[in-house]
Design a protein that fits this description.
about 280 residues, mainly alpha, 12 helices, 4 strands, about 60% helix, binds zinc ion
């Protein structure tokens, strides 16, 4: 049952308010933000039912399906639906070229959050440590060992393969706006740059706003309840908790490892026959 030990409490007024804040953070246009919320609320019951069904079929065979997909409390499910619904509006604005690099950076962070919530703590670890930040594969494995609490450590091959999968998901979402290069072993790398102070604080704001919260973790809210699988992800998506974890593991500070994509301007539509290519 969703409304059970996993803390799947019902959506309350403050959850809807928070959902509105997220939609407004993503869309300055009030009508667009409202459409996102209406769409998310309309899908909530069906999404709850789907998650319940999956939990039922997974019961008793968790060992074979680990790492399982995350189980979300109802407010977190609503948050996820807001991120999903937002994508339709985002894509429409991108098709019209009505988008800035700042918008794209926020949407990129949003997509890393969303693909992590859609999968599990392993995806989340790699999305954060190996895509958003430039840590080594072995550092990612150390982080996973801490947050997954007892999960079997992944081989470095698994980390590399899953990271490529994440890059593929980003490419599906952003197409030619993201640029890739080949690095050692022929692996694809996202073309990125180090973040300036202003960009770093935008990323921190976006992470705080776009990751479902408050998913209380032992680090920043010792009194809080671990109400779903989101608590493990909180540790790496919450900038303050992540910085504390990196310090504990004696790894470089996140600020020094933050990398943001160099977005490309998509090619202009082909000029019509007979039109001059040159101005
Ligand atoms: Zn925290």
């Amino acid at each position: 049952m969703l409304d059970g030990a996993r803390g799947g409490h019902r959506v309350e007024g403050h959850d809807v308010e928070r959902a509105f804040d997220v939609a407004r953070f993503l869309h300055a246009d009030e009508r667009a933000a409202t459409a996102v919320i209406v769409g998310a609320l309309a899908r909530l019951e069906a999404a709850r039912g789907e998650q319940q069904k999956r939990a039922y079929y997974q019961a008793g065979r968790e060992e074979t399906v680990r790492p399982y997909k995350l189980r979300l409390s109802t407010p977190h499910l609503l948050h996820k639906l807001v991120l999903e619904e937002s994508e339709r509006v985002e894509r429409a604005s991108e098709r019209e070229g009505d988008v800035t690099d700042r918008d794209l950076l926020i949407r990129y962070i949003k997509h890393l959050v969303l693909l992590s919530i859609r999968h599990n703590a392993f995806y989340a670890t790699l999305a954060v440590t190996r895509v958003l930040y430039d840590y080594r594969t072995r550092d990612a494995m150390d982080v996973y060992a801490v947050i997954a609490d007892g999960e079997v450590l992944k081989e470095s091959y698994d980390c590399r393969a899953r990271r490529q999968r994440i890059l593929g998901l980003l490419e599906e979402r952003f197409g030619a706006r993201l640029q890739f290069v080949r690095a050692c072993r022929g692996e694809r790398q996202l073309l990125t740059e180090e973040a300036e102070a202003g960009t770093a604080s935008l990323v921190a704001n976006a992470l705080e706003m776009l990751f479902p919260s408050p998913a209380a973790c032992a680090r920043c809210a010792p009194q809080g309840a671990h109400d779903d699988d989101m608590a493990a992800l909180h540790t790496i998506f919450h900038p303050r908790c992540f910085a504390a974890l990196m310090q504990e593991l004696r790894l470089p500070s996140p600020l020094s490892r933050l990398r943001v994509p160099l977005f490309a301007t998509p090619a202009a539509p082909c000029p019509q026959i007979g039109a001059s290519v040159h101005a």
